[in-house]
Design goal:
Layout lengths: L6 H20 L9 E8 L2 E6 L13 E4 L5 E3 L7 H11 L3 E5 L2 H9 L4 E3 L17 E3 L1 E2 L5 H11 L6 E4 L3 E6 L2 H21 L1
Parallel strand pairs: 8-9
Antiparallel strand pairs: 1-2, 1-5, 2-3, 3-4, 5-10, 6-7, 9-10
Helix pairs in contact: 2-4, 3-5
């Protein structure tokens, strides 16, 4: 089955991803050319717009985006992020409409300190990921890093906590997802806040 994604659709998605990237870069979460974002443009077959590789994420334009398939391979545009395959895997696994990958100090530090997973409870900000603020424990999974995106995707799938729209990749950073770029942004900001709180507590 084929799917028709127009240049206009891709440019529109690129503009959204450029704006989101600039926001995260302003927080210091996408330093240099690190990190990547994606948004789902079609489901059957799966097609995502992913930020292009090697660009300063604070300076992206609507053209700095690549259309990829369900395996993360480029369909149109330039060279996608090396992690495009994992973005596609997360979208297929979770039904997410957008995926965020940022390199934050708190996620790397807490991944080292709590390789078994990071447990949150009795924190009002849990409401930001759709969980009760009290009397419920929610674990943010931590998985070992790999340069093989298939291996990394398998680890993410095995460790995923359905109540937590995120996972920490040890020594690497944070993957977060949501139904839309806006929700993925909110989830990213909430999960990062929780990580910073735990880091400060310890």
């Amino acid at each position: 089955m084929s799917v028709d994604i127009s240049d206009f659709d891709l440019a529109e998605a690129g503009a959204v991803l450029a704006a989101e990237s600039a926001r995260f870069a302003s927080f210091g979460w996408m330093r240099g050319t690190s990190g990547n974002l994606s948004v789902v443009l079609a489901r059957d077959p799966l097609r995502l717009a992913v930020t292009a590789s090697g660009h300063d994420k604070g300076e992206l334009t609507a053209r700095d985006v690549v259309l990829v398939d369900g395996a993360g391979a480029a369909v149109a545009g330039g060279r996608p992020s090396a992690e495009a395959e994992l973005h596609a895997r997360v979208a297929a696994l979770t039904g997410a409409g957008a995926v965020v990958h940022v390199h934050t100090v708190a996620s790397v530090a807490m991944g080292h300190r709590s390789p078994e997973g990071i447990v949150f409870r009795d924190v009002e900000m849990l409401k930001g990921i759709g969980q009760p603020a009290h009397d419920v424990e929610v674990t943010l999974p931590v998985i070992a890093n790999s340069q093989d995106m298939t291996v990394l995707g398998d680890r993410l799938e095995a460790a995923r906590e359905p109540r937590m729209p995120a996972v920490v990749v040890a020594g690497h950073g944070l993957y977060v997802w949501g139904q839309s770029p806006r929700q993925a942004r909110h989830h990213t900001e909430v999960v990062e806040w929780l990580l910073e709180l735990e880091l400060a507590r310890r």
